[in-house]
Amino acid sequence: MLALCLMPSLALSAEPINVAGVYECDIKSNGVRKQMYLTLDFVNGNTPDFTQVFTEKESSFRRLPKDFMNAKKLTRTFGGSKAPGFGKYKEKLLFANTEEFKLMNPRVENGVIKADWINAKGGKGECIIMVNEDRSLRILGLTKYTRDLSPDDIEMGLVEDRLPAGVQPFISPKEIVAYYLKEDEKTRVTPKVTPYWEGVDVQVVRAEQKGNTIEVKMRMRINAEAKYEKLYVYVAQTDLNQTFAETKDGKRLTNYKSDTPGEIGDQAVVPVYKDKWTDYSIYFTDVPGTVDYITTMKYDNYISAFFFDNHLTIIENLPVFQSRPK
Fold first, then answer.
1. Which sequence spans correspond to the domains of the chain?
2. Considering just the CA atoms, what is the radius of gyration of the chain in Å?
3. Would you call 255 exposed, middle or buried from its count of C-beta atoms within 10 A (0-12, 13-18, 19+)?
4. Which segments of 70-109 are extended strands (E)?
5. Assign residue 292 a region: left if phi > 0, alpha if psi is -120 to 50, beta otherwise?
6. Per-residue pLDDT tens over the stretch 273-320
7. Is it the case that residue 135 has pLDDT exceeding 70?
8. Separation of alpha carbons 202 and 184, rounded Å
9. Would you say 122 and 101 are in contact if contact means Cβ atoms under 8 Å apart?
């Protein structure tokens, strides 16, 4: 996430972006009702906050109930201010959660719009706004709610166009939208990690493909209850180890390298200690094509430096993140 700047003089994008209008949605997803109202002006950056617009109990909307912007229930946090955007989100399952937020510093990056947000309770973050050909919006990262209770990846319909006449609207390229949605789906996947021994803790930090190389970033530690003080992890190919990975389409990846300095001879063998996290990476090179998921990955660990006691740590259903298309 990028740090937010709350100074009014820095709230606007350096360049205007041709997005301006009112957006609404009212949908049900997995039993949760999600409603949102959003006003954006990325051309001039002077959208008034909701207390300046809604002064009655009920108002007229295209998709939302009349009391969605009940003036008495609106936050006064942003009262009297202007910004590139304001929004209100409400979700209801067993009970209702409501959040109001302000959007600032919109900028175009790689075919999408990124913006900083701050909500009425002081929560902050960065979101990605994708504009479809029909000018509806797909937004990722807008709140701190869990995925099921957030407005992430719901479609906001344009109900009022506020772009000046004759201005060409900003549209995100289809391939860029597909990329972000695909990569966002991977963030919802938690790989299964089976350590080779119950005395160690293992975490997958991230797997990413750049060109024909996949780097799997890992962490390991010996837990406090274990009787061993030190073990070793192979992070480079030798005749002794069994490290490999398999993909969903049946590819087997075995050719890998390491940029981790070795401790034993000139081999890339990483020492791991008790009650202290050790970071290391395992690389697969000469990868044929794009790999989005590794179904199974196994790599060697040794309790003894003499390799008398070797076991495999197993990782299953590991998402592989891709470099952004240019």
1. 8-186, 192-322
2. 25
3. exposed
4. 82-83, 85-92, 96-109
5. alpha
6. 888 999 988 888 889 889 999 999 988 766 554 444 557 789 999 999
7. yes
8. 24
9. no
Mean pLDDT of the chain: 84
Is residue 118 within 8 A of residue 84, CB to CB? The reply is: no
Q: What whole-number distance in Å separates Cα of residue 290 and Cα of residue 213?
A: 10
Residue 82 DSSP label? E
Is the full-model pTM beyond 0.70?
Answer: yes
The first and second tokens of residue 159, run together, are 């109900």
Closest C-alpha among 174, 185, 182, 162 to residue 130: 174
Q: How far does CA 304 lie from the centroid of its chain?
A: 39
Q: How far apart are CA 114 and CA 106, in angstroms?
A: 6
Q: What is the mean pLDDT of residues 232-238?
A: 69
Rounded Cα gap, residues 8 and 10, in angstroms:
5
- Scored b (16 or more CB within 10 A) or e, 29-47 reads eeeeebbbbbbbbbbebeb
The rounded percent of the chain whose pLDDT value lies above 70 is: 84
Residue 40 DSSP label: E
Residue percentage of the chain with pLDDT more than 90: 51
CATH topology for 192-322 is: Immunoglobulin-like (2.60.40)
**Distance from C-alpha of 149 to C-alpha of 171, rounded to nearest angstrom:** 27
Measured distance CA(245)–CA(248) in Å, rounded = 10
Give 39-69 pLDDT, tens digit per residue: 999 999 999 999 999 999 999 999 999 999 9
**The token pair that represents 217 in the structure block:** 């970033």
Hey, what are 196's tokens? 């080779």
On whether the CB atoms of residues 200 and 220 are closer than 8 A, the answer is: yes
CA distances from 230 to 14, 79, 264, 298, 302 (A): 53, 59, 13, 20, 9
